[in-house]
Amino acid sequence: MQISSLYDSNPVQWESRRNGLLEFLREYGEQRITLRGCRRLARLTPDQLALPGVSLLVATVRGQNGRQLAGVSFVSGFGKEACVVAVHPLYRNRHTGTALLAAQLERLGQLECHVACDNAASLKMCFNSGLAAVDLVNGPTGKPTLLLRSPGSAIDPAILPQGGELLCQSPS
Question: Which of 20, 101, 157, 167 has CA 20 to 30 A from 8's CA?
Fold first, then answer.
């Protein structure tokens, strides 16, 4: 498996490639990819790929007809605007998603994402790539959703213990 960054300066080639990636997300995202993330990718221009906090990575494997797409990961705003990962069913449970997310983290230096609590596979992928849960929020569909962040990312002061507040209370 090879992970690489995508960038096309040719607008026609870029539009075709982006549309193919959006189709991949629709087909293999298990209807768990947020509309917001897909819209961000649909509006993405090659110039925006050069902005800090924006990255588009693909995982490919060698096949009979050349390299074939195994997974896609798109991040915008270091994950605050969009953090999307989809893996073809043939390459799931082989750490393809984990490798994509770890590569995003290495490339960007910091990352955050939201994952619904009932999405065990995505949570496992995030934890395996080094992200940690820092908050529980309501997601776009109203489901309980974990906010996951990379170690060393800026921590929201609202979730830190206040002066005199115990970190752990012992019932004894």
Answer: 101
C-alpha closest to that of 121 among 24, 29, 35? 29
- Cα maximum dimension of the chain: 68
Residue 47 CB burial class (10 angstroms; 0-12, 13-18, ≥19): exposed
Tell me whether residue 121 is exposed, middle or buried, using C-beta atoms within 10 angstroms of its C-beta: 0 to 12, 13 to 18, 19 or more.
middle
Cα–Cα distance between 85 and 69 in angstroms, integer? Answer: 13
Strand partners, 146: 115, 136
What pTM did the predictor assign?
A: 0.84
79 alpha-carbon distance from chain centroid:
7
**Bridge partners, 83 (sequence order):** 75
> Scanning the structure block, which residue is given the tokens 């960038």?
7
